[in-house]
Amino acid sequence: MGSLNFKVDEKNLLSEKQRIWNQLNENRLLRQKKEECRKGRFLHEKCYTFKNESYYKILRMMGEYYIKVSDYETIGLRQSEVTLYSYTFHGLKTMKCYAKFTKYSDKLFISQATTRDYFKMYDLEKE
Asked: Cα separation of 32 and 39, whole Å?
């Protein structure tokens, strides 16, 4: 039996290496941008404490709603289920909803309806 001879095209090999390097560089830049946005989100938010838990206040919602700091830190670019809290005379009331961030904004996007994909943009109260 004879041996197989593979002819390597160096030009295609270099272009493939360059494409891989470019993709890795884009991924690195995207990770850096996400980290900068994440750090920027937590700089000046006013923190409230109810029953030894820390909350951020969400502005421009109907009523006063709060989100736990631990829940807020886990929100990413994909929608995730979170619990919002409303502080009343009878204690904290809960509401399930979906929240996410987008690449182009550092605002929090919340969908109160679980049956449709309609998100509104909200800010957190600053100090």
From this structure: 11
Instruction: Give the CA angle between residues 117, 60, 74 to the nearest 5°.
Output: 55
Mean residue pLDDT across the chain: 79
CA distance 21 to 71: 35
Report the amino acid identity of residue 17. K
Is the pLDDT reported for residue 80 higher than 60? yes
For residue 122, the cross-strand partners are 108
Q: Which two tokens stand for residue 37?
A: 């946005």
Displacement of CA 105 from its chain's centroid (Å): 10
Retrieve residue 111's tokens.
Answer: 């969908």
pTM of this prediction exceeds 0.70: no
Mean pLDDT of 8-23: 78
